[in-house]
Amino acid sequence: MSTLPVRATPGLAPVLALLFAACAWGSMFLVSKPVVARVSPLWFTTLRYVFAALPLSLLLCCLGDRPWRKLRQHWAGLSVLGLLGYGFFGVATMTGLLLSQPSHGAVLMATVPLTTLLLRWALDSQRPGPRVAGAAVLALAGVVLVSGLAGGAATTPRALAGDAIMLLGTVGWVLYTRGGARWPSFSALEYSGLTAVMAVPVLLLVSASATAAGVVEAPRWSELSAVLPQLLYIAVVPTVAAVLAFNYGVRQLGAARGSLFLNGVPVSALLMGAALGQHPAAQEWLGALCVITALTLSSGASVPARGRR
Protein backbone atom coordinates (compact mmCIF):
# COMPACT_ATOMS: atom_id res chain seq x y z
CA MET A 1 0.00 0.00 0.00
CA SER A 2 1.48 3.37 -1.00
CA THR A 3 1.41 6.33 1.29
CA LEU A 4 1.07 9.94 0.30
CA PRO A 5 3.95 12.25 1.30
CA VAL A 6 3.19 14.41 4.30
CA ARG A 7 4.17 18.05 3.93
CA ALA A 8 5.79 19.38 7.06
CA THR A 9 4.36 22.53 8.60
CA PRO A 10 6.51 25.06 10.45
CA GLY A 11 4.58 24.78 13.72
CA LEU A 12 4.83 27.13 16.69
CA ALA A 13 8.62 27.21 17.10
CA PRO A 14 9.38 29.78 14.34
CA VAL A 15 6.56 32.03 15.58
CA LEU A 16 7.98 32.00 19.11
CA ALA A 17 11.49 32.58 17.76
CA LEU A 18 10.35 35.64 15.81
CA LEU A 19 8.43 37.02 18.80
CA PHE A 20 11.55 36.63 20.95
CA ALA A 21 13.61 38.50 18.33
CA ALA A 22 11.06 41.32 18.28
CA CYS A 23 11.15 41.66 22.07
CA ALA A 24 14.95 41.57 22.15
CA TRP A 25 15.21 44.26 19.48
CA GLY A 26 12.63 46.38 21.29
CA SER A 27 14.88 46.37 24.35
CA MET A 28 17.91 47.18 22.16
CA PHE A 29 16.67 50.68 21.35
CA LEU A 30 16.02 51.48 25.02
CA VAL A 31 19.41 50.15 26.15
CA SER A 32 21.44 51.60 23.26
CA LYS A 33 20.32 55.23 23.60
CA PRO A 34 22.61 56.09 26.56
CA VAL A 35 25.46 54.06 25.04
CA VAL A 36 25.65 56.02 21.77
CA ALA A 37 25.79 59.20 23.83
CA ARG A 38 29.24 58.03 25.03
CA VAL A 39 30.51 55.86 22.14
CA SER A 40 30.30 56.83 18.45
CA PRO A 41 27.82 54.79 16.39
CA LEU A 42 30.64 53.39 14.24
CA TRP A 43 32.71 52.14 17.17
CA PHE A 44 29.58 51.01 18.99
CA THR A 45 28.60 48.83 16.03
CA THR A 46 32.14 47.52 15.61
CA LEU A 47 32.55 46.56 19.28
CA ARG A 48 29.06 45.07 19.33
CA TYR A 49 29.94 42.61 16.58
CA VAL A 50 33.46 41.96 17.85
CA PHE A 51 31.88 40.73 21.09
CA ALA A 52 29.12 38.89 19.21
CA ALA A 53 31.52 37.14 16.82
CA LEU A 54 33.22 35.28 19.66
CA PRO A 55 30.19 33.23 20.85
CA LEU A 56 29.01 32.84 17.25
CA SER A 57 32.38 31.34 16.26
CA LEU A 58 32.24 28.89 19.15
CA LEU A 59 28.71 27.86 18.20
CA LEU A 60 29.81 27.41 14.58
CA CYS A 61 32.67 25.14 15.65
CA CYS A 62 30.37 23.02 17.82
CA LEU A 63 27.16 22.94 15.79
CA GLY A 64 28.01 23.99 12.25
CA ASP A 65 28.35 21.64 9.30
CA ARG A 66 31.88 22.37 8.00
CA PRO A 67 31.28 26.13 8.42
CA TRP A 68 34.85 27.24 7.64
CA ARG A 69 34.77 25.38 4.33
CA LYS A 70 31.57 27.24 3.47
CA LEU A 71 33.27 30.45 4.53
CA ARG A 72 36.16 29.87 2.10
CA GLN A 73 33.76 29.03 -0.73
CA HIS A 74 31.41 31.99 -0.29
CA TRP A 75 33.49 34.61 1.54
CA ALA A 76 32.78 37.41 -0.94
CA GLY A 77 28.99 37.13 -0.82
CA LEU A 78 29.00 36.60 2.95
CA SER A 79 31.15 39.72 3.40
CA VAL A 80 28.82 41.91 1.36
CA LEU A 81 25.69 40.67 3.12
CA GLY A 82 27.33 40.91 6.53
CA LEU A 83 28.25 44.54 5.88
CA LEU A 84 24.70 45.28 4.71
CA GLY A 85 22.93 43.55 7.58
CA TYR A 86 25.35 44.30 10.40
CA GLY A 87 27.57 47.19 9.33
CA PHE A 88 25.35 49.48 7.27
CA PHE A 89 22.17 48.74 9.19
CA GLY A 90 23.90 48.92 12.58
CA VAL A 91 25.75 52.19 11.98
CA ALA A 92 22.73 53.86 10.36
CA THR A 93 20.43 52.75 13.17
CA MET A 94 22.74 53.95 15.93
CA THR A 95 23.45 57.24 14.12
CA GLY A 96 19.75 57.87 13.76
CA LEU A 97 19.11 56.86 17.36
CA LEU A 98 21.69 59.42 18.51
CA LEU A 99 19.61 62.13 16.82
CA SER A 100 16.13 60.77 17.45
CA GLN A 101 14.26 58.70 20.05
CA PRO A 102 14.14 54.95 20.83
CA SER A 103 10.42 54.83 20.08
CA HIS A 104 11.04 56.24 16.60
CA GLY A 105 13.74 53.64 15.93
CA ALA A 106 11.41 50.84 16.99
CA VAL A 107 8.66 52.18 14.72
CA LEU A 108 10.95 52.55 11.72
CA MET A 109 12.23 49.01 12.15
CA ALA A 110 8.62 47.95 11.79
CA THR A 111 8.56 49.33 8.22
CA VAL A 112 10.83 46.45 7.14
CA PRO A 113 7.90 44.13 6.24
CA LEU A 114 6.47 46.64 3.77
CA THR A 115 9.91 47.21 2.25
CA THR A 116 10.36 43.44 1.97
CA LEU A 117 7.03 43.04 0.21
CA LEU A 118 7.79 45.88 -2.20
CA LEU A 119 11.24 44.50 -3.02
CA ARG A 120 9.83 41.02 -3.67
CA TRP A 121 7.24 42.59 -5.94
CA ALA A 122 9.84 44.72 -7.77
CA LEU A 123 12.72 42.22 -7.96
CA ASP A 124 10.96 38.85 -7.99
CA SER A 125 7.60 39.78 -9.60
CA GLN A 126 5.90 38.15 -6.59
CA ARG A 127 2.85 40.19 -5.74
CA PRO A 128 1.89 39.72 -2.06
CA GLY A 129 -1.38 37.98 -1.35
CA PRO A 130 -4.24 40.12 -0.04
CA ARG A 131 -4.07 38.59 3.45
CA VAL A 132 -0.34 39.21 3.92
CA ALA A 133 -0.51 42.67 2.33
CA GLY A 134 -3.49 43.60 4.48
CA ALA A 135 -1.73 42.38 7.59
CA ALA A 136 1.32 44.51 6.73
CA VAL A 137 -0.80 47.64 6.28
CA LEU A 138 -2.71 46.97 9.50
CA ALA A 139 0.54 46.43 11.39
CA LEU A 140 2.03 49.64 10.03
CA ALA A 141 -1.06 51.56 11.13
CA GLY A 142 -0.63 49.99 14.55
CA VAL A 143 2.98 51.04 14.95
CA VAL A 144 2.12 54.60 13.90
CA LEU A 145 -0.43 54.69 16.71
CA VAL A 146 2.04 53.16 19.17
CA SER A 147 4.69 55.75 18.31
CA GLY A 148 2.38 58.70 18.78
CA LEU A 149 3.22 59.96 15.28
CA ALA A 150 -0.50 60.24 14.56
CA GLY A 151 -1.08 62.42 17.61
CA GLY A 152 0.22 65.65 16.11
CA ALA A 153 3.27 65.88 18.37
CA ALA A 154 5.96 68.28 17.22
CA THR A 155 9.02 66.69 15.65
CA THR A 156 12.32 68.54 15.51
CA PRO A 157 14.48 68.69 12.35
CA ARG A 158 17.19 66.81 14.28
CA ALA A 159 14.78 63.95 15.01
CA LEU A 160 13.54 63.93 11.41
CA ALA A 161 17.11 63.62 10.15
CA GLY A 162 17.71 60.73 12.56
CA ASP A 163 14.52 59.04 11.44
CA ALA A 164 15.54 59.37 7.78
CA ILE A 165 18.93 57.79 8.50
CA MET A 166 17.33 54.89 10.38
CA LEU A 167 14.80 54.38 7.59
CA LEU A 168 17.62 54.19 5.05
CA GLY A 169 19.41 51.68 7.25
CA THR A 170 16.46 49.30 7.22
CA VAL A 171 17.04 48.71 3.50
CA GLY A 172 20.33 47.06 4.43
CA TRP A 173 18.52 44.67 6.76
CA VAL A 174 15.94 43.79 4.10
CA LEU A 175 18.71 42.95 1.62
CA TYR A 176 20.50 40.91 4.29
CA THR A 177 17.32 38.97 5.04
CA ARG A 178 16.75 38.24 1.36
CA GLY A 179 20.36 37.19 0.94
CA GLY A 180 19.90 34.13 3.11
CA ALA A 181 17.97 32.47 0.28
CA ARG A 182 21.21 32.26 -1.75
CA TRP A 183 22.44 29.40 0.43
CA PRO A 184 19.46 27.22 1.40
CA SER A 185 21.84 24.58 2.76
CA PHE A 186 23.11 27.00 5.42
CA SER A 187 21.51 26.71 8.83
CA ALA A 188 20.30 29.85 10.62
CA LEU A 189 23.41 29.64 12.81
CA GLU A 190 25.75 29.35 9.82
CA TYR A 191 24.23 32.26 7.94
CA SER A 192 24.12 34.49 11.04
CA GLY A 193 27.58 33.54 12.25
CA LEU A 194 29.50 33.52 8.97
CA THR A 195 28.14 36.89 7.86
CA ALA A 196 29.08 38.35 11.26
CA VAL A 197 32.58 36.85 11.17
CA MET A 198 33.19 38.32 7.71
CA ALA A 199 31.82 41.75 8.67
CA VAL A 200 34.03 42.22 11.75
CA PRO A 201 37.44 42.70 10.01
CA VAL A 202 36.00 45.28 7.62
CA LEU A 203 34.27 47.13 10.47
CA LEU A 204 37.54 47.21 12.43
CA LEU A 205 39.39 48.53 9.38
CA VAL A 206 36.78 51.22 8.70
CA SER A 207 36.66 52.29 12.36
CA ALA A 208 40.46 52.48 12.66
CA SER A 209 40.72 54.43 9.38
CA ALA A 210 37.96 56.85 10.39
CA THR A 211 39.67 57.40 13.75
CA ALA A 212 43.07 58.01 12.13
CA ALA A 213 41.44 60.51 9.75
CA GLY A 214 39.81 62.35 12.64
CA VAL A 215 36.27 61.57 11.51
CA VAL A 216 35.35 59.75 14.74
CA GLU A 217 36.96 59.38 18.15
CA ALA A 218 37.97 56.01 19.55
CA PRO A 219 36.21 55.36 22.88
CA ARG A 220 38.29 55.80 26.00
CA TRP A 221 38.38 53.08 28.63
CA SER A 222 36.48 55.25 31.11
CA GLU A 223 33.66 55.57 28.58
CA LEU A 224 33.66 51.87 27.76
CA SER A 225 33.70 50.75 31.39
CA ALA A 226 30.67 52.91 32.11
CA VAL A 227 28.58 51.22 29.42
CA LEU A 228 30.20 47.77 29.30
CA PRO A 229 27.20 45.91 30.86
CA GLN A 230 24.83 47.45 28.31
CA LEU A 231 27.23 46.72 25.46
CA LEU A 232 27.60 43.08 26.49
CA TYR A 233 23.83 42.70 26.79
CA ILE A 234 23.34 44.14 23.30
CA ALA A 235 26.06 41.87 21.88
CA VAL A 236 24.62 38.70 23.41
CA VAL A 237 20.82 39.09 23.43
CA PRO A 238 19.68 41.39 20.57
CA THR A 239 22.69 40.53 18.39
CA VAL A 240 23.46 36.83 18.83
CA ALA A 241 20.30 35.27 20.26
CA ALA A 242 17.79 37.47 18.44
CA VAL A 243 19.50 37.28 15.04
CA LEU A 244 19.69 33.48 15.30
CA ALA A 245 16.02 33.34 16.25
CA PHE A 246 15.04 35.73 13.47
CA ASN A 247 16.97 33.90 10.75
CA TYR A 248 15.52 30.58 11.94
CA GLY A 249 11.99 31.98 11.79
CA VAL A 250 12.56 33.49 8.34
CA ARG A 251 13.88 30.15 7.04
CA GLN A 252 10.70 28.46 8.24
CA LEU A 253 8.08 31.07 7.33
CA GLY A 254 9.71 33.02 4.50
CA ALA A 255 11.05 36.58 4.41
CA ALA A 256 7.68 38.26 3.79
CA ARG A 257 5.87 36.64 6.72
CA GLY A 258 8.93 36.46 8.95
CA SER A 259 9.77 40.14 8.56
CA LEU A 260 6.20 41.05 9.47
CA PHE A 261 6.99 40.04 13.06
CA LEU A 262 9.27 43.07 13.27
CA ASN A 263 6.08 45.01 13.88
CA GLY A 264 6.27 43.56 17.37
CA VAL A 265 9.41 45.61 18.09
CA PRO A 266 7.61 48.88 18.97
CA VAL A 267 4.94 46.97 20.87
CA SER A 268 7.58 45.28 23.01
CA ALA A 269 9.23 48.66 23.59
CA LEU A 270 5.84 50.01 24.69
CA LEU A 271 5.29 47.15 27.14
CA MET A 272 8.81 47.50 28.56
CA GLY A 273 8.20 51.21 29.04
CA ALA A 274 4.97 50.38 30.89
CA ALA A 275 6.89 48.00 33.16
CA LEU A 276 9.28 50.87 33.95
CA GLY A 277 6.39 53.07 35.06
CA GLN A 278 5.49 54.83 31.81
CA HIS A 279 1.71 54.67 31.35
CA PRO A 280 0.72 54.18 27.68
CA ALA A 281 -2.08 56.28 26.20
CA ALA A 282 -5.25 54.74 24.79
CA GLN A 283 -4.07 55.15 21.19
CA GLU A 284 -0.89 53.23 22.05
CA TRP A 285 -2.89 50.28 23.36
CA LEU A 286 -5.06 50.46 20.23
CA GLY A 287 -1.93 50.35 18.12
CA ALA A 288 -0.67 47.33 20.04
CA LEU A 289 -3.97 45.57 19.36
CA CYS A 290 -3.62 46.32 15.63
CA VAL A 291 -0.13 44.83 15.58
CA ILE A 292 -1.18 41.69 17.45
CA THR A 293 -4.10 41.23 15.05
CA ALA A 294 -1.79 41.67 12.07
CA LEU A 295 0.65 39.10 13.41
CA THR A 296 -2.22 36.65 13.88
CA LEU A 297 -3.37 37.17 10.30
CA SER A 298 0.16 36.77 8.99
CA SER A 299 0.97 33.59 10.89
CA GLY A 300 -2.25 32.02 9.64
CA ALA A 301 -1.65 32.85 5.99
CA SER A 302 -0.41 30.05 3.76
CA VAL A 303 2.75 30.71 1.74
CA PRO A 304 3.90 28.23 -0.88
CA ALA A 305 7.32 26.79 -0.23
CA ARG A 306 8.67 28.00 -3.55
CA GLY A 307 7.60 31.55 -2.67
CA ARG A 308 9.81 31.83 0.37
CA ARG A 309 12.70 34.23 0.07
Share of helix among residues?
over 70%
Low-confidence stretches: 1-7, 302-309
Radius of gyration: 19 Å
Beta-strand proportion: under 5%
* Total helical segments: 13
Distance between the termini: 37 Å
Global morphology: globular
Structural class: mainly alpha
Q: How is the main sheet built?
A: none
* Total DSSP E strands: 0
Number of domains: 1
H/E element sequence? HHHHHHHHHHHHH
Q: Averaging pLDDT over every residue, what do you get?
A: 82
Keywords: Cell membrane, Membrane, Transmembrane, Transmembrane helix
Pfam family, one: EamA
Main location: membrane
Organism: Pseudorhodoferax aquiterrae
Describe this structure in words.
The protein has 309 residues and is mainly α. The protein has one domain (23-301). The protein has 13 helices and no strands. Helix 1 (13-36) packs across helix 4, helix 2 packs antiparallel against helix 9 (188-212) and helix 2 crosses helix 10. It starts with 12 loop residues before the first helix and ends in a 9-residue tail after the last helix. Mean pLDDT is 82; it is low at 1-7 and 302-309. InterPro entries: AA-Vitamin_Transporters, EamA_dom, EmrE-like. It comes from Pseudorhodoferax aquiterrae. This is Transporter. Keywords: Cell membrane, Membrane, Transmembrane, Transmembrane helix. The chain crosses the membrane at residues 12-30, 42-63, 75-99, 105-123, 135-153, 159-176, 188-210, 230-248, 260-279, 285-305.
Write the layout of secondary structure elements.
Blueprint: H1 13-36, H2 41-63, H3 67-73, H4 75-99, H5 102-109, H6 112-124, H7 130-147, H8 157-179, H9 188-212, H10 221-253, H11 255-260, H12 264-275, H13 282-300
Helix pairs in contact: 1-4, 1-5, 1-10, 1-12, 2-4, 2-9, 2-10, 4-8, 4-9, 5-7, 5-8, 5-12, 6-8, 7-13, 9-10, 12-13
